[in-house]
Design goal:
Blueprint: E1 8-11, H1 16-28, E2 35-38, H2 42-50, E3 61-64, E4 72-75, H3 76-87, H4 102-120
Parallel strand pairs: 1-2
Antiparallel strand pairs: 1-3, 3-4
Pfam families: DCC1-like (PF04134)
Protein name: Thiol-disulfide oxidoreductase
InterPro entries: DCC1-like (IPR007263), DCC_oxidoreductase (IPR052927)
Length: 140
C-alpha cells in the first residue's frame, strides 16, 4: 500500500470569504500538506467529472485521496467539517456542529453561501497565492 495522497480543497476562487478561509487554513495548517484548487480549474473539473453528483455544487469540496481508487468527496458542511478534522488541535471544537443533522447544517451553509458575495465581496479573478505557498495550489 502506497503513501497517502494529500487531500485537496476545492473552493470558489472568486469568493472573498472563500479566499479568506483558504488564507486562514494556510496559516494554521501545521502539516502543510493540504492542497487547493479553484472550482473552475481543470483539476477540479476532473474531480467533478468523476463525481457527477457534485456538478452543480458551488461550495467547498474536500477531496480525500484525489485521483486514487479511494477518492472521496465531502461537500458543503461536510467539507467544512473535514477541514476542521484536518486542522485538528483547537479547531476540533468546531466539530460539535456534527450534533446538528446534516440536512440542517447544509441548509445553514447554503443560506450563508447565498449571501457570501454581498457580504464578503467577489473578486474579478481568482487571486494569485503568495510565492511561498503557490506550490500547494493546483492549476493556479
Amino acid at each position: 500500500m502506497g503513501a497517502e495522497t494529500p487531500p485537496v480543497l476545492l473552493y470558489d476562487g472568486v469568493c472573498g470569504v472563500c479566499n479568506r478561509a483558504v488564507q486562514t487554513i494556510l496559516r494554521f495548517d501545521r502539516r502543510g500538506t493540504l492542497r487547493f484548487a479553484a472550482l473552475d480549474s481543470d483539476f477540479a473539473r476532473a474531480i467533478i467529472d468523476r463525481h457527477p453528483g457534485i456538478e452543480d455544487v458551488d461550495s467547498m469540496v474536500f477531496v480525500d485521496q484525489p485521483g486514487r481508487d479511494g477518492e472521496r468527496v465531502a461537500v458543503r458542511s461536510g467539507a467544512a467539517l473535514r477541514v476542521v478534522d484536518y486542522l485538528g488541535g483547537p479547531w476540533r471544537v468546531l466539530g460539535a456542529a456534527r450534533l446538528l443533522p446534516a440536512p440542517l447544517r447544509d441548509r445553514l451553509y447554503d443560506g450563508f453561501a447565498g449571501i457570501r458575495y454581498r457580504v464578503f465581496g467577489k473578486h474579478d479573478t481568482c487571486p494569485i497565492p503568495p510565492p511561498e505557498v503557490r506550490g500547494r495550489f493546483l492549476d493556479g
